[in-house]
Amino acid sequence: MVWMSWTLPTAAFFAGIALILVAMTTWQAIYPSVERKGFLPIETTRGDRLFIGLLSSAFVHLGFVALSDVPLYVATALCVLWMCFLMRWG
Amino acid sequence: MTKVENNKAWWLVLPVFLIVAFSAIIPLMTVVNYSVQDIFDPYTRYFVGTEWFKQVMLDERLHDALIRQFIFSFTILAIEIPLGIMVALMMPTKGKGASLALILVAIPLLIPWNVVGTIWQIFGRADIGLFGAMMAELGINYNYASEPMHAWLTVVLMDVWHWTPLVALLCYSGLRAIPEVYYQAARIDKASRWAVFRYIQLPKLTNVLIIGVLLRFMDSFMIYTEPFVLTGGGPGTSTTFLSQSLVQQAIGQFDLGPAAAFSLVYFLIILLVCWVFYTTIMHMQKDK
């Protein structure tokens, strides 16, 4: 594993993603998701909303890094709120 | 009646998952690790946080390469998709002619990418190449090595020549899968050739076109070898696309950290555009 040059923040990031995937898979197995229409212009399943949320969060983080000197945890906090909002009403 | 769900078949996906993990997920994780470090080798590294991302996002050269990349990808899609459909519609459907047409159309796909670059490098030269000589005969001082517009024209023509056959073959297979009864119904209704295309062939081609557009977009967005061999990214930086900038940074300058950050931004852009394409096309289909 040395060749992968792990750092604590990247390990935590991937552990977080893995946990989300495991949780979503379990959720799906117990309560299968159905497509529904929320505030997004398209019908989405729970997995679609997760994907949209993660991808948009990545771009929000990139935007924060490029355009401001605000600490990154502010972007992360905003993205967590956005993800919750998207998963519930998206 | 209760529907019985049997999820055992998911185990059959396991080998694919392991291969993808080995060939894509683990390397991607390594790139993420590299992107937050100033790294020379696994033992000589310093954590720098998001510094490389900031540098990459504010780099003017990369902005220019990104704009060029989008212009290139959308240009070739705008040419290759309609042209591929047209070629597929014109290809014979029966007899020896069909086999011959399939072989002829598939030939450019069989040629290695660096050879394609070399072919067009020679083809475009005014002194020894047919295309260059033809342009010279027409009174055009054609020189892809010094004129940016000529270099662009040659790179676009090369890509169209190389990859339109893929779209044509996909569409050809899609057209062959349309049952004859649709055409019979169209004949009874005295539908025009255009109506047959618009209301029978085109809707039935949607699935193969989704694959065609996605494949061509991703492939053209990652194009490296052909322009590198043909123009070397020049004249100046006029045909330097994203992958070439990335290779220059990663291998030429051995800036592994910034190159890793660049790769991730590049990856996210491809992911976003492909998702937008896929979702749009799938929802258009669903609305019908």
TrEMBL record, chain A:
<feature type="transmembrane region" description="Helical">
    <location>
        <begin position="72"/>
        <end position="89"/>
    </location>
</feature>
<keyword id="KW-1133">Transmembrane helix</keyword>
<dbReference type="InterPro" id="IPR018678">
    <property type="entry name" value="DUF2160_TM"/>
</dbReference>
<dbReference type="Pfam" id="PF09928">
    <property type="entry name" value="DUF2160"/>
</dbReference>
<keyword id="KW-0812">Transmembrane</keyword>
<protein>
    <submittedName>
        <fullName>DUF2160 domain-containing protein</fullName>
    </submittedName>
</protein>
<keyword id="KW-0472">Membrane</keyword>
<feature type="transmembrane region" description="Helical">
    <location>
        <begin position="6"/>
        <end position="30"/>
    </location>
</feature>
From TrEMBL, chain B:
<feature type="transmembrane region" description="Helical">
    <location>
        <begin position="12"/>
        <end position="36"/>
    </location>
</feature>
<dbReference type="InterPro" id="IPR000515">
    <property type="entry name" value="MetI-like"/>
</dbReference>
<protein>
    <submittedName>
        <fullName>Carbohydrate ABC transporter membrane protein 1 (CUT1 family)</fullName>
    </submittedName>
</protein>
<feature type="transmembrane region" description="Helical">
    <location>
        <begin position="196"/>
        <end position="218"/>
    </location>
</feature>
<dbReference type="Pfam" id="PF00528">
    <property type="entry name" value="BPD_transp_1"/>
</dbReference>
<dbReference type="InterPro" id="IPR035906">
    <property type="entry name" value="MetI-like_sf"/>
</dbReference>
<keyword id="KW-1133">Transmembrane helix</keyword>
<keyword id="KW-0472">Membrane</keyword>
<feature type="transmembrane region" description="Helical">
    <location>
        <begin position="70"/>
        <end position="91"/>
    </location>
</feature>
<feature type="transmembrane region" description="Helical">
    <location>
        <begin position="259"/>
        <end position="278"/>
    </location>
</feature>
<comment type="similarity">
    <text>Belongs to the binding-protein-dependent transport system permease family.</text>
</comment>
<dbReference type="GO" id="GO:0055085">
    <property type="term" value="P:transmembrane transport"/>
</dbReference>
<keyword id="KW-0813">Transport</keyword>
<feature type="transmembrane region" description="Helical">
    <location>
        <begin position="151"/>
        <end position="175"/>
    </location>
</feature>
<feature type="domain" description="ABC transmembrane type-1">
    <location>
        <begin position="66"/>
        <end position="277"/>
    </location>
</feature>
<dbReference type="GO" id="GO:0005886">
    <property type="term" value="C:plasma membrane"/>
</dbReference>
<feature type="transmembrane region" description="Helical">
    <location>
        <begin position="97"/>
        <end position="116"/>
    </location>
</feature>
<keyword id="KW-0812">Transmembrane</keyword>
<dbReference type="InterPro" id="IPR052730">
    <property type="entry name" value="Sugar_ABC_transporter"/>
</dbReference>
